[in-house]
């Protein structure tokens, strides 16, 4: 079983930056694809960004393109999300996830999920 733990969330003013981290433990594999999702109150969970095992291919939601950057350090079994120019609409609980699929395209292809970390952006 794989365990994922997010950290780095907090309160930030609009226009500020945060870096989220996700540490993996347990029966992990370095070839897992990984991603970030978020969920705001009253809204469904939505895709934010994804990265394949080699880190040469990434994908982003249109709402965060140009502002967020996903990366990974396979040696440290850690996933990152650098968030710049944050907006109030970015406020949500952010979750990291891992997939046994080589190139997952939908959320149900992610098999392991963290508990989430709160990000709040104030005006």
Name some characteristics of this structure.
four-stranded antiparallel sheet, 11 strands, 0% helix, 123 residues, 51% strand, single chain, mainly beta
Structure write-up:
It is a single chain. The protein has strands at residues 2-7, 10-13, 18-26, 33-39, 46-51, 58-60, 68-73, 78-83, 92-99, 112-113, 117-122. By secondary structure, it is an all-beta fold. A hairpin with a 6-residue loop joins strand 4 and strand 5. The radius of gyration is 13 Å and the shape is globular.
Q: So what's the oligomer here? A: single chain
Low-confidence stretches: none
Mean pLDDT: 93
Q: List the helices and strands in order.
A: EEEEEEEEEEE
SS field, number of helical segments: 0
């Amino acid at each position: 079983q794989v365990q994922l733990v997010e950290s780095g969330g907090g309160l930030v003013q609009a226009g500020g930056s945060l870096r989220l981290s996700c540490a993996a433990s347990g029966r992990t594999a370095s070839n897992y694809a990984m991603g970030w999702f978020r969920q705001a109150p009253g809204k469904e969970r939505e895709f934010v960004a994804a990265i394949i095992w080699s880190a040469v291919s990434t994908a982003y939601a249109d709402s965060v393109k140009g502002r967020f950057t996903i990366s990974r350090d396979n040696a440290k079994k850690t996933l990152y999300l650098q968030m710049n120019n944050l907006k109030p609409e970015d406020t949500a609980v952010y979750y990291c996830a891992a997939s046994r699929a080589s190139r997952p395209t939908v959320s149900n292809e992610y098999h392991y999920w963290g508990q989430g970390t709160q990000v709040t952006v104030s005006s």
